[in-house]
């Protein structure tokens, strides 16, 4: 019988009171070797439910998140690779301030970590380079979307959403984004400490340069 586990989730964010395309959450669910046919993703304005099964690893991944604020499910962008599912979830309310945390409930959870590869401090986000989103596909016209309020993505060909790379085509980038527990940031909750750590890392890299 396949084991059911909670996958590791990485997140970062941007915010804007004027531009909707700069007001979003980066969310990455690490689920190695899960084919598109074994994915089910249900996105609602305040929550996300994900289930994926890996035949080779004999493992079922299940995740339920309740967000701190509302998002616009119809604007979600997705990229599926052989290692993970990456998403851009656009915040419904335009605001300059960051969400204080990803989840509604203020508690630490072992599977949720800050994505320092994508994280920038709130007061430095306007100077951050634009992310390359060429591999992301939108959700317009996808079956099962239920009018843009949410939907199940069971059986959808994610490779058609993922640009030229598609499923299994992102091995090189996967290596760059591989996660080692020793390199992982702090758990969800202490955002102030995380931001401070990120700033120290940036200062060290500038000094080394």
Automatic annotation (TrEMBL):
GO function terms (MF aspect): Hsp90 protein binding; protein-folding chaperone binding
A Pfam family per the record: CS
Signal peptide boundaries: none
Domain of life: Eukaryota
Domain CS residue range list: 4-103
Biased composition (Basic and acidic residues): 198-209
Family, per entry: Belongs to the p23/wos2 family.
PANTHER family: CO-CHAPERONE PROTEIN DAF-41 (PTHR22932:SF1), TELOMERASE-BINDING PROTEIN P23 HSP90 CO-CHAPERONE (PTHR22932)
Protein name in the entry: HSP20-like chaperone
The organism's taxonomic lineage, starting at the top: Eukaryota, Fungi, Dikarya, Ascomycota, Pezizomycotina
């Amino acid at each position: 019988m396949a084991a059911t586990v909670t996958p590791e989730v990485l997140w970062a964010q941007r915010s804007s009171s004027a531009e909707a395309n700069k007001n979003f959450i980066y969310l990455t669910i690490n689920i190695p070797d899960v084919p598109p046919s074994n994915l089910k993703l249900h996105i609602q304005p305040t929550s996300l439910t994900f289930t994926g099964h890996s035949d080779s690893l004999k493992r079922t991944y299940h995740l339920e998140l309740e967000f701190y604020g509302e998002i616009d499910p119809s604007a979600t962008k997705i990229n599926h690779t052989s290692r993970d599912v990456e998403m851009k979830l656009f915040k419904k309310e335009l605001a300059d301030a960051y969400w204080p945390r990803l989840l509604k409930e203020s508690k630490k959870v072992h599977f949720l970590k800050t994505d320092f590869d994508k994280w920038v401090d709130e007061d430095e986000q306007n100077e951050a380079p634009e992310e390359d989103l060429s591999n992301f596909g939108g959700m317009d016209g996808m079956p099962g979307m239920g009018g843009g309020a949410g939907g199940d993505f069971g059986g959808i060909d994610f490779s058609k959403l993922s640009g030229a790379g598609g499923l299994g085509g992102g091995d090189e980038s996967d290596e760059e984004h591989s996660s080692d527990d020793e390199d992982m940031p702090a758990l969800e909750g202490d955002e102030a400490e995380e931001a401070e750590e990120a700033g120290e890392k940036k200062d060290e890299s500038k000094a080394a340069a």
